[in-house]
Amino acid sequence: MRFAYRALTEDGRTVRGQIEAENESELERELAANRLTLLEARAIRSRRRARAPLQPRDIIDFYFQMESMLRAGVPLLDFLADLRDTSASPAIQNLAEDLHRRIEAGASLSEALAAHPKVAEPMICSLIKTAEATGQLPDVLAQIVASLKWRDELKAQTKKALTYPAFVFVVITAVVIFLMTYLVPQLITFLENMGQTLPFATRALIAVSRFITESWYLLLIVPTGATLLVAFVAKHNVRFRQWLHRQVLQIPLVGAIIHKIILARFADVFALMYRSGVPILDALQLGEEVTQNLEIRTAIEHARRLVTQGVPISQAFAGSGLFPPLVIRMLRVGEQTGALDDALANVSYYYARDVNESVARLQTLIEPILTVVLGLILGWIMFAVLGPVYDTITKIRM
Question: Any stretches that span the bilayer, and where are they (predicted)?
Fold first, then answer.
């Protein structure tokens, strides 16, 4: 149920707003948690707009509009009220309404955003908290927008690069299933009645065809069961999860790109936070938290401990084995010249460009590889079927 309320703040001001609650008692508890005293409440018809999920593009637009309005001198509460009343996105309307209510009750922007982890991860909250203290909120918001845009573009590019190979893989799988379950079984009786010893390629084809035809359910049960088992063990065993993450980084072609994407994300977050005035140890810790791969996270944690002991960043990263020599040299030069923020920005740019180029190269490699695989499968089937037929015709002519 949705309530329109009038409440009293700790400093005696009267505020109005709307909020979802099961009943008036829960409404009063919710307001009390935000340091508000309920004066009057009225149940209104809920428009059920909170169910719509926030898309990445919505979040980027939200921060972009906030940056633009604050830079233009529009008060934050006025911006949130206008966004609540005019946004075309129901989810953004609810976000703006909740932020407006919390800030009006005395919370800071970073504190209000912390209640929405899907909109503001800890890194963003820390950046905004620092910006509130230094008075650089519009500049930091612009940097957050640039970072979120880069992530969104990288995700879109990676998805685009994998779409065609995934389509080709599905086509190959469909062709193989059709041949093995429809065409080859019709030829098995003919091949076996030819009265000659079948070559190994033909016997293998017959065995594969019979397995797919008679035990097709195993092709569903075994991979699904293995995936669920691995996921269960990885969830409950940290050592196994770290071993699994290490193996992911060693997958041919793909592993190196995954490694670069993770480091690009870390470099982007670390550079953004350091440039915005976040203490270097806090920036390292938050950069570590956004890293999902345990193998890389462990290396970052080791580097952070070295920095805590007074080791320079370039030396700490060199000892972690995470970054290539070029990146280490860039960091070392930045430390020596007192321009570490510029060096970190260059590292972030280096990885962003490297990831884009690597994804493009992967796309150009996967397409011909899948084409060759399809050709080899079709060639094997043709050789296995036509080979015995050709041998029989040759013997008849002789």
Answer: 161-184, 215-233, 369-390
**Phi first, then psi: what are they for 324, rounded to 5°?**
-70, 165
Instruction: Return the amino acid letter for 377.
Output: I
Domain 259-356: state its class: mainly alpha
What's at 325, amino acid-wise?
P
What mean pLDDT is reported for the chain? 83
Q: What is the pLDDT of residue 49?
A: 47
The whole-model pTM stands at 0.69
What is the C-alpha to C-alpha distance for residues 198 and 184, in angstroms, rounded to an integer?
15
pLDDT classification of 194: cutoffs 50, 70, 90:
low
Provide the CB-side half-sphere exposure for 389 (13 A, CA).
11
Burial 7-41 (b: 16+ CB within 10 A, else e): beeeeeeebebbbbbeeeeebbebbeebebebeeb
DSSP alpha helices (H): ranges in 193-236?
200-214, 216-236
SS3 state of residue 118? coil
C-beta of residue 76 within 8 angstroms of C-beta of residue 103: yes
